[in-house]
Amino acid sequence: MTLPVPAHDTVGVQPPAASDDAPRPALLARLSAEVFGTLIVVVAGLGVPLFTIPQSNPLPAALAAGVALTAAMLAVGYISGGHFNPAVTLGNVIAGRIGLADAAAYIGAQLVGAVLGAVALFGVLRTVPKIDDSQAAFATVTAGFGEHSIIQVPMAGVLLVEVLGTALLVAVFLATTAGRNPAKAAAPFAVGLTMAMLLQFGQAIGNVPFNPARATASAIFSGPDALGQLWLFWVAPVVGAAIAGLVFRGFAQSTAPAAPRPDARPARPARGKSAGKAPAGRATADKADPELANAELDEAEPANAEMDNAELADARLAGAVRAGDDEARSFFDRKGRE
């Protein structure tokens, strides 16, 4: 299974299809997939720590969240690209894979899915007789800093961790879903394991989620203190996603095939009876005046100027391929090799 990012208004990559002519999923289908996937991520990411008995915990909350993300990407990632995170969507915008209008719709769908998941969990909490304060219970899994951090990490520390972790997560997503990556089928597992590792790292620091949608959903049901600190868990992921997107875009451009010079002429063997023979006087000219020898060689071998129009067009097209569009670049690479 492959998991490329879907095509959008600008440069995106087509999702896998049975044939080249199959249309990409409609926007409504992609948004529905984002709602569903984000709901899975939030239910597992918040539900497991909420309802875990420490003495008999078979699966750490961070690993459960990573497994849920992998499952969601495998289930519906082929429809929407498997973002389930506003930071990942922003990274795709900067990398040139998705248009701004579609990105805004994606983020809205992710918020809807996250809130629906939090509503379901809050409803379950209200049914547990031993939990008197559902809001206080939700606060135990909500992101925070300072006095709302388990180990009292100040704002600067939580901000740095959130920026760094989000940049790493978005970078892994962009790299593993790139069109030229031969291991695209492993993208859900790479992204899920990265998320699990980051959540384990950020859990004690302040329940750092590296996902603004998840942070928003938990803050809504945790009271005014959590809502007052929510801004950090939007600003920091945006910065981290921007860093990863810019680095990935620069890396893609640096590895793009170099554009051929329009006036470059490929070396071709001489034609006709003179094949394999040097023009008269070349040996003498080579020794006497190299520049004069080169001029005589250009005049003596007009075949070098006979580049076919089709070959020239292919060369110019290959040089004009946009660095962010992996599939288009691969297409023109194949044309050049043919």
Can you walk me through this structure?
By secondary structure, this protein is mostly helical. 61% of the residues lie in helices and 0% in strands. The protein has helices at residues 27-50, 61-80, 86-94, 100-127, 134-139, 155-176, 187-206, 212-220, 224-228, 232-254, 282-288, 290-300, 309-319, 326-337. It is globular, with a radius of gyration of 28 Å.
What can be said about the biggest beta sheet?
none
* Percentage of β-strand residues: under 5%
Helix-strand sequence:
HHHHHHHHHHHHHH
| Tally of DSSP β-strands | 0
Query: Low-confidence runs (pLDDT<50, min 5 residues)?
Result: 4-21, 270-288, 292-338
How many helices? The count is 14
Principal-axes geometry comes out as: globular
C-alpha end-to-end distance: 28 Å
Mean pLDDT: 77
> What is the rounded Rg?
28 Å
**Helix share bin:** 55-70%
Alpha-beta classification: mainly alpha
Feature tags:
338 residues; globular; single chain; disordered C terminus; 14 helices; mainly alpha
Topology:
Blueprint: H1 27-50, H2 61-80, H3 86-94, H4 100-127, H5 134-139, H6 155-176, H7 187-206, H8 212-220, H9 224-228, H10 232-254, H11 282-288, H12 290-300, H13 309-319, H14 326-337
Helix pairs in contact: 1-2, 1-4, 1-8, 2-7, 3-4, 3-6, 3-10, 4-8, 6-7, 6-10, 11-12, 13-14
